[in-house]
Every structure is written in structure tokens, then in C-alpha cells.
Automatic annotation (TrEMBL):
Lineage: Bacteria, Pseudomonadati, Verrucomicrobiota, Opitutia, Puniceicoccales
Keyword Acyltransferase in record: no
Organism: Puniceicoccus vermicola
Gene Ontology MF annotations: carbohydrate binding
Name this protein carries in UniProt: Peptidase M56 domain-containing protein
InterPro entries: Beta-lactam_resp_regulator, Carb-bd-like_fold, Peptidase_M56
Every Peptidase M56 domain range: 100-295
Length: 1143
């Protein structure tokens, strides 16, 4: 529910008030039957039952509102109140003198849609006017009740002033016997007819003049004892609460009946107390009978009187209760009245339900589609927009931006000024550079999309200019430069606080999407670094100093006149011994190049461009002295004339040794090629694999002549990792061990019945049209909008590497068409449809050109809105999704095939979203995440009456989660990956990797939301020798201490069923036997087979397991862990398996 929308509050309040009628009926019936079982002597219990029912009936209103807002039953209608905003450049250090005026045609078109949306809202607002009437009537009645209460309080105050002190008697002893700690004034008033208690903070007992003068002292003492009992029980306070409840629920007849029972039981309690204190029951009964015969009763609502609120009948009832305490008092419930009110309430609820259903069916399909279309003009679908960029020819279109730069005095700046541009459109982004001329003029080519410029003039402050959505040439820009200010940094020791001299750093201007050129600087003896010509733009800083962990800061803002202090922490060195694989001797002149850098929240791939952080002399020891204590690294160990080694994970304080082998080319001998083929072309590459990232390197296409059906390829890999080869549309992979066994033989065979098939040519496919038809319900408009279609770009031909392609197609009269190769497999996603949803189509086979796929559509709605920071600013860098809320016993998937915003770049400021289409009749949850912070909305119900809802979500800052991961023996599990996993309420799971332990097994996860709607876990799966563990995060603890259990081993081999040879590179996994539902993990990772086809698991619990491989079918075996039993899997390899067979 959106509590900022008063219409939703009115809707839920009206429904809660109507629900209160039947809730009152239930509570009144419960009170009636319970009091029929409790005798008059237990008046305290009877009073507690009745008063509890009264309070429950009042609390039922807010509880019902909360329940309706959570379950969606409240059905708040949120209309598309669209916003239009204009953004401008953010530079403060430069004056924009002249900027060309943009066209307003686009803005006018959005405003037209905005007005159309508002017209639709007016129609829907009228259909919900019943809620406003209900709340209006209730408000008037509530204020009337409050006025009654206020009038009574004013009258009581006047009575206190008019009364006189009742002198001649002392009542302190009676007050003490009644349990009062201090005496209460007793006064006489001519305007009251019975004894009563007035006031809460300073109470007073009022006696009528006739009673004070004519009633015997013994009876008067009993009357005053009754009033003292009211005071001891705090009845004036509870009476005030009761009066407020009567004002709040004045419309509910059952509340009035319960309230009457409360008053009757209250007087009965005080009667029993007065008799107990005085010990004169007979005289008390006579006093009650005299009051009943006189027909006296209470006159003021806020006063607790001796006569209560009843007349003669109620006083006589109190007499009967004192005479027969074991009897059941008469409830005075008139059955005809009860049935009459029940009938009235039933009619009201039925009318409300029928009216609501009637209102819900007012919105037509045309109106629903039109309103969703209007919302889509302002609220984007980022994921759909990204998909549309695939294959769009104009996505690389460039436009020019030009202008002139001037100094503060109007002079031409000296030198050619670097200009960096950034543009992003859909799935692609590009950075480019240009320079201003010697006359200060500049012209830069910028690709179409959202674009920014960063200027870095020498001797002036850098500045950025936001071009906005750049889709046309911009000319005539003029900028006045600013000299900026002098910024200062100071580097200090994080432990001692002493200044650090000699810190080497690279600084670059960080304008978010676009960054400046790096500049090298060194701190002086005081740890100071001077940065001249600073602006408001922050700096990206990389700092290193021997003996200290590297410093990485993405955004450092420096204020004029202040020194920004940065700390470096002492670290331990990483030592690597480098040996020759041929003779075991130490190798000198070796370099250590950083390739991957990981820490919690940071995954950085540097590839071959990474920095060299250590070199060795002739002794062969590599020592890296500036690694961060909380980071994991992967490196190249490089030496000229040798294959580079790829090593990791490693970190500060570690040590290892590595062998380097002399470089030599790999020899590939290819046979079985058609004799008519003159040349064979192969593509070779390598891939660097880590648990978190992979990166391809060394991709190269090599050609060789074909002689006698054979060809030889020589290729030198740059690093000792597996080589991938693509030849004749086949993907192959070879491990380093296979290189050493001699030439790698690749044989293509020609079948006997097709001796002349050209194996190197592309298999024959037919191109033809495919028609996708969306069938809407009878009488509804034809489907419109877009469809996301996926197909195999090169056709579904056996033996080919399948290349999948996605296209976003426009629907015309409910039909989308495109040309595809046949045969094929087609996938269709509903994302892009307006007002309708289809069940996603997955891998639909088509065999002949001209095929038609018909898909049934159902009515759908949309959820739109925005995400804010806690301070109310628009949130940035968001991932947004939507899923269907599942019930506990429901088997339907929560995934409905609709993506909202599935990617985010740094400084991505898109905080608006549109989730569409969403089939009506279900509840949906919108998910928002940024790094480790997750937020899930309350379930939102969409139906025909309210198919469009708005959400305004606030992303919390979250809290840090700290912990330590330990091995079974208590030692730290250093440099390990953990996953943050959130099981959302409603049946959907979210995983976020990248949590990393340091050398002491410690980890910190920033920004975790402890209030997220779901369960938050840490998952640990890849620690060698340890069982996987799912850890339920306890946010009440300051530190999570996680100790893993020891794992059991199972080893084995994978063999090819056709040849009996060992299979290299086959991924093996294990599952429990027998299957255990809901067990975690559902399967255990075992890695890939080595050069001998062997595998080993070290992470299994004790028990039986079924071993299998993803490389082929058949060959499943059952083994018991931890007993030394070997598993041999003999499989039929899949055609797409890219491993190899051992010789």
C-alpha cells in the first residue's frame, strides 16, 4: 500500500469499518456465551471478558487495515499520475553561457499522454467514491461522539466548582479499608441526584444534598465505599477509554451492547467491594432498593455513579446478584433485535461486495490498454529497451557536439584540451576522446544515447557537461573555464597515525560514467599530496607503498581549504618461489602481473593490462609487498621464453611455488578434411577461470593450407591454461597436459553412405518467414506492443554450435513476423505486450518455412513507480525485478517471464520502473537490489478493477554483517568465496556472490537489510575438505562465527562408452541417494576431470550418493562416501561436449 496516496487510505479505512460490523457480531456472541458460563460472584472475571472484547473490537480496525494492505484485499487503486522532469548539467566550476534550445515536441507528446492518463484516473476515482462517502459519514459521527464526551467533561468541571465541602465526618479510615493510599475529598452538590466520582488526576466524590442530609451514616458509608471502589479500580480512566471507543465505533450496535455489559459488570464489581469492606450486606441492599424506588440514575457520561447508567431495572438486577451470587445474571438480550441487526449487517456487506465487484468490472480492456500505454511513455522498461538495441542498425549512429572554451578573462586557453565522452544506449556503451584546438574551439563525435562530456583543461579545473539523451547534433556551446582550487591529501598509517611518505598514487577525475586520464603523484615527507586545479568532481585514487596494503578509493571529494586524510594499513608480503619445470632450478628475472582482484563487493578483471607488482632478481624469489589484507588476487608469473603461469587465489601473507615451462608451440594435426578444400581456418583462444569471473585472452584466427585432406596448425599459447579451438563449426578444448603428450590429432570422418559430404561447409538451412499470432479473449481488442523472440541464429542442425539470438518485434494487428532459418527452436517472452500476458514459450520446434505459432493471451496489468534513498533523493545503480507471489501449497513458478531492470552501470540514475505485463488475478512483489542491499515490496494485487498500481519504494542503507569462517579444526578458512542468499516471502530466491574472506577467515558485508521480507543466509560451497553450509544470519549478533563440518571423499573416473578412453574436462556432480526433498544443496559440485579422466569430491557428508556427469548420458553409479570406493562413470558423450579424450 502507498500511504502517501489518500485514496488508498480512504479505501482501506472504509473496508475496515464495514468489516468491523461482522467482527462486532462475532465478539458479542462470544461475550454472550462466555458470560452464560460465569456466575455473578465472579464479577471481576465477567468484567475482564467484556472489557477485553471492547478493546479487541477497537483494535480490529487498524489490524484490518494492516491486513488488507498486506494481502492486497484492500485493492487500492493507484492511478498513473505521471511526472515530467527536466535535467541539466551538474557542473559548478564552469559557466554555461549559451546552449541551443531543445525541441519541445517530445515533451508535448508526453504531456498529452499525461492528460489522457488523468482522464482515465477520473473515471476510476468516481467508481471508488463509495469509500469517500463511508469515511465522511463515519468522520461526522466520530466527531459528534467526541463533542458529547467534551460537553460532559465541561459539565463535570462545572459541578466540581459548584460543590461544597462535606464537613463533620472523617472518611480516612474507610478510604484505607478500601485500598486507597490517600484520602479523597467528599463534597456536596445540589445538581447531582446520586453519589458519583468525578476526575482522574484529582478525583472527588460528590454526594447529592438530600443524601448527605437525610441518609443514615451507616448507609452513607456504604454508598461512599462503592465510590471508593471505583477509584481503587481506576474506573474513571477506563470509563474514559470506553467513551472514546463508543465515539469511534458509534455505528456498530454490537459495540453498544458490549459497552452496556461492561458498565453493568463494573457496578457489580464495586457492589461486591463495598459489601466486603463494610460487612453490612443487608443495609447495602436497602440502599440500592431505595435508589431504585426513587428512579435515580447517572446524568453525566464521564462520571461513575452509585446508580450506574441503568434505571430501576438495572438496580434491581444488582440486588438480585448480591442475593444469589452463584446464579447466572440475566443478559437482557432481545433475540428479535439481534436477528434484525444481523440481517441489516448482512445486507450491507452483501451490497458492499456486489458494489465492489460491479465497480471492479467498470474498466474496459481498451481503457486498461490505453492507461498502461500512457504510463509507459514516462516510466521506462529498461530491460526491454536494452533488448531492442540488439541488431538495431542506428545504435552506432554518431552525432557531433561543438563549441568554444574561454578562460575567465575571455582569453583562449593554452594547449589542446582533452575531452572525454561517454554514451550509453541499451546494451552498449562507448567512451571516446577528442581535443580542443589551439583557438579554443572543439568538435567531438558522440554516439547516440545518454551522453556526457568531461573536459580536462591544463591549468584549469576539470568539468563535466551532461548532454542528456543525445540524438542530434549540438552546436554553439560556450564554456567559461575556472581555475578551481588547490586540494590536499594526506596519507597516514591506519594503526599509528604517522604520515606516510613516498606513497605512489594514480589519480583521475571520476565523473561517474566518464573518467579522466590518470596522473601519477607521490606523497612528501609529511604524507601530503598536492592536487592543483580541483573542482567539485571527485577523484579516483589508487595508492601503493611497500609494506602497506594497496589503497583503492573510487570517489574522494576534496573540500577547499581542508586536507582529506586517507589511511593505508600495514600488510604482510606474498612470497612466490619460481622454479624451472625442466631442472627444478630457481629462475630469475621473473615478473608478477596482477590479473584479477577480488574483495567483498569488488570483482575486477585486469587481464594482460594489469600492473606488474613485483619483479625478481637472479635469485628467483618474487615478493609482493603492497597487497590488501582483505583481498584475493590472481596473477601471471611471466618470464621471457617461458609459458606464463596463471596462479591464485593468493593474498597478503601467503606463500607458494610455481614451475615455468619453456615456451613451445602447440602442434595441431587435422585430418579427414575434404580433398577439395584448399584451406582450413581455426579460431584459438584461452580462458582464465576463477570462481567469480572468467576472462578470455589471446583470441586469434589462424589459417593453414589443406594438403591431401590434412592440415597442420602451430600456435603458441601465452599462458599455461586450457586452449579452446573452433574448427569446422566444432568447439574443442585441450588441457596443458595434452600439449605435452605430443601433437594433438583432430580427425574428421566421412560416413560410408555419404562419402562426398563437405565437412567444412555450413550445413544447409532454409530461410523462411515465421508468424507469431497472439490470440486475445473473445471481444477484446487485438494485442499490441512488442514481443521478445529468441531463436537459433544458424538453425537447429545437429553437430553445429548453436548461436542464440534475441529480437524485439512490433505487433501489428496481433501478429509479429520475422525471417528465421529452418529448422529452429523458438522462445517467446511476454515482455513488451501492453495489457495482455502470455505464458512464456520455451524451445518451440519449427521444421518448415511459413510456420505459425499461436499463443493465447490473458488480460494483464502493470506496476510502475520509483525507488528513493532514505533521504528522499532518487536512488541510483539499481536492479529491479518482479515475481509472482506464491502460496504455501502452490506449484506454479514465481517467474512470469517479465524482466524490469536487470543491469545497472555505476552512477546509473534511472530510478523509475514499469513492470508489465502482469496477468490479472495474482499478487506480485517488486524486488530492488543494489550490491548487497535488497528490498521487497508488499504483495500487490492486480485485478480487472485495479489493473495498474503505483509503488514508491525506499531503499534502506542497511547494516554491515561481520563474521569469520573456520575450518573443522578451528583454523581460518582464508580466501574463500561466500554467497549472500535471500529467500523472499512469496517463494523466490536471490543470490549475490562476491563475499570474500581475508587471510584470517574474516569477512564484512556492507549494506545488508535486516528488515527484508524473507530469510537471509550465507551459503558456503567451495571450501576444499568441508561440507557445504547454509548459515542463517542472526542480525541480533554483532559477529557471525561459522565453523564448517569435515567432508568425506569419493573419487573416480569418467570413460567414453564408445572408445573406453578417459574423458578430459567432464563436469561431475553428486546427489543424495535416496533423494531428500528440500535438502540443501540439491547437488554437490565436483569440478572437472583431469588429464587422466579422474575426479575427486572432498565435500560430501557421510552417506550414499549418485554420481553423474554433464558431459554425457548413462553411466550413473551409486557410491558410499568416505569408504574409499571408486566410482567409474561410462557415458555416451553429448555432441556438444567440448572436452576431449585422453590417449
Amino acid at each position: 500500500m502507498n500511504f502517501d496516496d489518500p485514496r488508498e487510505i480512504l479505501q482501506l479505512t472504509a473496508e475496515a469499518l464495514l468489516h468491523n460490523l461482522w467482527q462486532g457480531w462475532v465478539l458479542a456472541a462470544l461475550v454472550y456465551f462466555l458470560l452464560r458460563l460465569i456466575p455473578a460472584a465472579r464479577s471481576g472475571l465477567r468484567y475482564g471478558v467484556a472489557f477485553a472484547a471492547l478493546i479487541l473490537l477497537v483494535l480490529a480496525v487498524p489490524v484490518t487495515i494492516a491486513s488488507l494492505s498486506f494481502t492486497g484485499e484492500g485493492d487500492p487503486t493507484s492511478s498513473p499520475l505521471l511526472e515530467i522532469s527536466e535535467e541539466s548539467g551538474r557542473s559548478e566550476s564552469v559557466a554555461v553561457v549559451s546552449v541551443a534550445e531543445p525541441s519541445r515536441s517530445e515533451l508535448d507528446r508526453v504531456i498529452d499522454y499525461h492528460e489522457e492518463a488523468l482522464a482515465g484516473n477520473a473515471r476510476r476515482a468516481g467508481s471508488k467514491s463509495w469509500a469517500a462517502w463511508v469515511v465522511a459519514v463515519w468522520t461526522l459521527g466520530f466527531f459528534a461522539g467526541l463533542m458529547r464526551l467534551l460537553r460532559s467533561m465541561v459539565a463535570v468541571s462545572a459541578l466540581r466548582k459548584e460543590s461544597e465541602e462535606f464537613a463533620g465526618f472523617s472518611w480516612e479510615g474507610l478510604a484505607q479499608r478500601c485500598g486507597l493510599r490517600k484520602s479523597v475529598p467528599i463534597r456536596v452538590c445540589r445538581r447531582v441526584s446520586v453519589a458519583c466520582v468525578l476526575g482522574i488526576v484529582k478525583p472527588v466524590v460528590l454526594l447529592p444534598l438530600s443524601m448527605a442530609t437525610a441518609m443514615p451514616r451507616e448507609q452513607l458509608e456504604m454508598v461512599i465505599a462503592h465510590e471508593f471502589a471505583h477509584l481503587r479500580r481506576l474506573d474513571p480512566l477506563w470509563n474514559l477509554v470506553q467513551l472514546f471507543a463508543e465515539a469511534l465505533l458509534f455505528f456498530n450496535p454490537f459495540l453498544w451492547w458490549i459497552s452496556g455489559v461492561v458498565r453493568a459488570e463494573r457496578e457489580a464489581c464495586c457492589d461486591q467491594e463495598a459489601v466486603r469492606v463494610t460487612g453490612r450486606k443487608k443495609e447495602y441492599l436497602e440502599a440500592l432498593l431505595e435508589t431504585a424506588q426513587a428512579g435515580l440514575g447517572g446524568k453525566f457520561a464521564t462520571a461513575s455513579s452509585f446508580a450506574g447508567k441503568g434505571g430501576k431495572g438495572s438496580l434491581l438486577g444488582r440486588v438480585r446478584r448480591l442475593i444469589s451470587p452463584q446464579a447466572i445474571p440475566e443478559m437482557r438480550l432481545r433475540w428479535p433485535v439481534l436477528f434484525g441487526w444481523t440481517a441489516v449487517i448482512a445486507v450491507m456487506l452483501i451490497a458492499f461486495q456486489v458494489g465492489s465487484i460491479g465497480v471492479a468490472k467498470v474498466l474496459t480492456a481498451e481503457e486498461r490498454i490505453r492507461e498502461i500505454e500512457a504510463v509507459g511513455e514516462v516510466y521506462p522498461q529498461p530491460s526491454l529497451e536494452r533488448k531492442e538495441e540488439f541488431g538495431r542498425p542506428e545504435k552506432n549512429q554518431e552525432f557531433e557536439v561543438s563549441g568554444v572554451l574561454r578562460g575567465p578573462d575571455g582569453s583562449v586557453p593554452v594547449g589542446r584540451i582533452p575531452i572525454h565522452s561517454f554514451s550509453i544506449s541499451g546494451t552498449s556503451s562507448i567512451m571516446a576522446s577528442a581535443r580542443a584546438g589551439s583557438d579554443g574551439t572543439f568538435t567531438a563525435s558522440v554516439r547516440k544515447g545518454r551522453a556526457e562530456l568531461l573536459f580536462e583543461p591544463e591549468n584549469y579545473a576539470p568539468f563535466e557537461f551532461d548532454l542528456g539523451q543525445f540524438d542530434a547534433d549540438r552546436t554553439g556551446l560556450e564554456f567559461i573555464l575556472s581555475e578551481g582550487f588547490v586540494g590536499k591529501l594526506r596519507f597516514v598509517d591506519a594503526e599509528s597515525g604517522k604520515p606516510l611518505s613516498g606513497v605512489e598514487l594514480k589519480t583521475s577525475v571520476n565523473a561517474g560514467r566518464v573518467q579522466g586520464s590518470p596522473k601519477e603523484r607521490v606523497s612528501d615527507e609529511e604524507g601530503i599530496v598536492i592536487v592543483e586545479h580541483m573542482s567539485e568532481l571527485p577523484l579516483k585514487i589508487e595508492a601503493s607503498l611497500s609494506g602497506y596494503g594497496e589503497g583503492l578509493w573510487e570517489k574522494v571529494s576534496i573540500e577547499p581549504g581542508l586536507i582529506e586524510e586517507l589511511t593505508l594499513s600495514p600488510t604482510e608480503p606474498l612470497r612466490i618461489e619460481v622454479l624451472s619445470a625442466e631442472d627444478g632450478e630457481l629462475l630469475g628475472d621473473v615478473s608478477l602481473r596482477m590479473v584479477f582482484r577480488f574483495s567483498t563487493g569488488l570483482n575486477q578483471s585486469l587481464d594482460k593490462s594489469g600492473p606488474v607488482i613485483a619483479t625478481s632478481g637472479e635469485e628467483g624469489d618474487l615478493v609482493a609487498t603492497s597487497l590488501g589484507a582483505g583481498s584475493i588476487y590472481y596473477f601471471f608469473v611471466e618470464k621471457e621464453g617461458y609459458e606464463s603461469a596463471f596462479i591464485g587465489p593468493l593474498g597478503a601473507g601467503g606463500s607458494t611455488s610455481v614451475e615455468l615451462r619453456k615456451s613451445r608451440p602447440i602442434r595441431f594435426e587435422i585430418t579427414g578434411l575434404p580433398p577439395t578444400q584448399s584451406e582450413v581456418e581455426v579460431t584459438l583462444s584461452q580462458s582464465l577461470e576463477t570462481p567469480s569471473l572468467s576472462s578470455g585472452i589471446g583470441r586469434e584466427t589462424v589459417s593453414s593450407p589443406v594438403v591431401g585432406g590434412g592440415a597442420t596448425i602451430l600456435w603458441s599459447p601465452s599462458v599455461r591454461v586450457p586452449v579452446r579451438m573452433k574448427v569446422a563449426d566444432q568447439q574443442l578444448s585441450f588441457s596443458p597436459e595434452e600439449w605435452e603428450s605430443g601433437p594433438i590429432a583432430i580427425a574428421f570422418s566421412t560416413s560410408a553412405d555419404q562419402p562426398n559430404v563437405d565437412q567444412s561447409s555450413e550445413p544447409t538451412v532454409q530461410l523462411g518467414m515465421l508468424e507469431i499470432r497472439i490470440r486475445t479473449p473473445e471481444g477484446d481488442p487485438e494485442a499490441q506492443g512488442k514481443l521478445v523472440v529468441e531463436y537459433i541464429e544458424n538453425g537447429d542442425i545437429k553437430g553445429k554450435v548453436r548461436r542464440m539470438k534475441k529480437r524485439v518485434l512490433e505487433l501489428r494487428e496481433g501478429v509479429a513476423s520475422l525471417k528465421v532459418p529452418y529448422p529452429n527452436r523458438i522462445g517467446i517472452q511476454p515482455e513488451g505486450l501492453i495489457g495482455y500476458w502470455i505464458d512464456p514459450v520455451r524451445s518451440h520446434e519449427i521444421s518448415e518455412p511459413g510456420a505459425t505459432i499461436t499463443v493465447d493471451a490473458v488480460p494483464a496489468g502493470a506496476i510502475y513507480g520509483s525507488v528513493l534513498e532514505e533521504n528522499g533523493d532518487p536512488a541510483d545503480s539499481l536492479l529491479i525485478g518482479v515475481f509472482r507471489r506464491q502460496k504455501a501449497d502452490e506449484n506454479r513458478s514465481s517467474n512470469i517471464g517479465v524482466e524490469v531492470k536487470n543491469s545497472a552501470t555505476q552512477e546509473d540514475q534511472q530510478n523509475r520502473f514499469l513492470a508489465s505485463p502482469l496477468p490479472l488475478g495474482d499478487q506480485y512483489v517488486v524486488s530492488v537490489s543494489r550490491e548487497f542491499t535488497y528490498l521487497f515490496s508488499k504483495p500487490v494485487l492486480l485485478d480487472e478493477g485495479a489493473p495498474i498500481k503505483e509503488l514508491v519504494l525506499t531503499l534502506p542503507e542497511g547494516i554491515p554483517v561481520e563474521g569469520r569462517l573456520l575450518r573443522p579444526d578451528g583454523s581460518p578458512a582464508a580466501f574463500q568465496w561466500l554467497n549472500l542468499f535471500i529467500e523472499a516471502d512469496g517463494g523466490h530466491g536471490f543470490a549475490r556472490g562476491g563475499v570474500i574472506t581475508d587471510g584470517d577467515g574474516r569477512f564484512v558485508i556492507d549494506g545488508v537489510n535486516p528488515e527484508v521480507r524473507g530469510k537471509t543466509y550465507l551459503e558456503i560451497e567451495d571450501v576444499e575438505g568441508c561440507q557445504p553450509k547454509r548459515w542463517d544470519i542472526n542480525f541480533g549478533k554483532s559477529r557471525q562465527e561459522i565453523q564448517l563440518a569435515p567432508g568425506s571423499e569419493v573419487s573416480g573416473r569418467v570413460l567414453d562408452a564408445a572408445t573406453g578412453k578417459a574423458v578430459v574436462g567432464a563436469e561431475v556432480y553428486a546427489s543424495r541417494e535416496p533423494y531428500v526433498p528440500d535438502a540443501w544443496p540439491s547437488w554437490f559440485k565436483g569440478g572437472k576431470t583431469d588429464a587422466q579422466g579422474r575426479f575427486i569430491f572432498t565435500n560430501l557428508p557421510q552417506g550414499n550418493f549418485r554420481m553423474n556427469t554433464r558431459a554425457g548420458k548413462g553411466g550413473e553409479v551409486e557410491v558410499q562416501s568416505g569408504v574409499g570406493e571408486e566410482a567409474v562413470l561410462t557415458v555416451e558423450l553429448y555432441e556438444w561436449f567440448d572436452g576431449s579424450l585422453a590417449d
